[in-house]
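quick one if you have a minute, typing this from the bus. below you get a single protein, a line of residues and a line of whole numbers that encode the local backbone shape. could you go over both lines and see whether the tokens make sense for that sequence. anything you notice is useful, everything is just below.
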Amino acid sequence: MRARRGAHPWVTGVAGTLLVAVVAGCSPGGQEEAVTVGLITKQEENPYWVEMREVAQETADDLDVELLTATGTSDTDVASQEAALDDMVEQGVDGILLAPTDAAALEGAIARAQEAGVRVIAVDTPTDPPELVQATFATDNERAGELIGRYAAAKVEELGLEPQVATLDLTPGVSTGEQRRAGFLSGFGAEEGDEAVVASVDTEGDRDNAAVAMTQVLTDHPDVNVVYTVNEPAALGALAALQDAGADLDEIVLVSVDGGCAAMREGVRPGLIDATAMQYPQNMAREGVRAIARAVREGQEPTGYLDTGTLLVSDAPVEGVESRRVEFGVRTCWGS
């Protein structure tokens, strides 16, 4: 495991009233009031969710908060998350941090939690409508997609390429994936159905799925020269397929979203992934645990939306698109 994580500054605007220092409250007997927080993520192995769980535990330990955790088996595992919501309510948690796989499908379980007096905060993945939960702590996913879309458009122009775009997406109905894709297309200057987008494949953000998808895309469209990936596991899967196919990576623009250390070292630093939009799961976890502790101990309920930040990182910056160099990314990345 990496050394204890420091707080990352918010690098885009913050909406809402959620950034207030925690001052621990006390029970009438003079002891700090007990708080139990639940954290429900989407899957076990993705470094993004591992980081979120580890930082949530560190924060809980700092605040003398009990943390319960649960996770699904994939980004589409609604049943496990629904069961975890009901189970945590039964265990008497004060609040739940939920990264919803499908907010519409989880609406009933979220409502049951709230009816039982349990606060529910969405992390990473906003709900639609936002009012399904008390608050949302997340990346501005459309902004993240827009940044890599603008970068890809500028890089294509710099290389003098006629764009042939493949998008390796998440899965239908998950807001993070839909927002990133929409942002990418907007930043790239394209629209849904644009003839420049020659292939779009759902990968669930999984490395192996992305490798299979990219292999098929190259079979069907060997001239693909822009690859958008919804996250870095998908980017690393696409990269493996491109390398196996002997593709000329100097003539292909590969972009992604996340900011994990594995992709930063293996992909961005050597120039194999051209750019990534960093996001900060540690901010979501840290502020989520703090918010529930503050609500119980001080009566200050979390509301609104907290943008936890995004920055473009590339070792090959392009004119007109602000970015940080890869040294910054390696220094501030998350995961092992």
Notes: The mean pLDDT is 92. The longest strand covers residues 36-41. Residues 36-139+280-302 form a domain with the Rossmann fold fold (CATH 3.40.50.2300). The two ends are 6 Å apart (CA to CA).
